[in-house]
Write a structure and sequence with these properties.
6 helices, mainly alpha
Length: 119
């Protein structure tokens, strides 16, 4: 059923993603600036998903702050990227329009499970 879209519908989806990606790249705030130093692009996909699924500006700001904490704490403790599954779980939660609080619980579970504490 989902594969029965017309080519124009697929192109509309690509255009929507492109526009969201450009919006993420042009975010001028400090959280976006800090995220730009993270050595993975997963945060961009997460923020694009939040835009495409119509999260509010406040929810996106809270999400950016959460992502800064998540990626930087992981980087300091692990010196590597977080597990890809955690990024996928965050994107899945966004696609399901879960609250930012639920997304924070995914991050907390990862940090606690890997003995990366948040002070």
């Amino acid at each position: 059923d989902k594969l029965q879209k017309s080519p124009l519908e697929y192109l509309d989806g690509v255009e929507d993603f492109y526009n969201a990606y450009v919006e993420v790249l042009e975010m001028p705030d400090r959280y976006a600036h800090l995220l730009s130093y993270v050595p993975t692009d997963s945060w961009r996909a997460i923020l694009c998903a939040s835009l495409l699924h119509h999260y509010s500006d406040q929810e996106i700001e809270t999400l950016k702050e959460l992502l800064v904490k998540f990626y930087y704490q992981n980087w300091v403790a692990e010196q590597k990227e977080p597990k890809k599954q955690t990024n996928c779980n965050i994107i899945k939660a966004i696609k399901e329009k879960q609250s930012v609080e639920n997304i924070a619980s995914i991050v907390k579970e990862y940090l606690n499970g890997n003995k990366i504490t948040q002070h």
